[in-house]
Design brief:
The protein is of the alpha+beta class. The protein has one domain (2-49). The protein is 38% helix and 22% strand. The two termini are 18 Å apart.
Length: 64
């Protein structure tokens, strides 16, 4: 699973994007519990989520 974090620092608010590239939705679904259930993720997410006003998910298909 390829990952990158992007930020938009323009304007009055900040936007943080976590981009994941996976070969299939099945692989994403299989790996999410491992990724989000890790102790490091949970500890950092608790700190981060207190600063989040809103969020959403988008799923795109890469066409090459």
């Amino acid at each position: 699973m390829k990952q990158r974090i992007m930020t938009d620092l323009v304007g009055t608010l900040y936007t943080l994007v976590l981009e994941l590239t996976v070969p299939s939705m099945a692989e994403l679904e299989a790996n999410m519990p491992k990724a989000l259930g890790g102790k490091d993720w949970q500890a950092n997410y608790q700190k981060f989520s207190a600063m989040v006003e809103s969020g959403y998910r988008e799923i795109f298909t890469l066409i090459e």
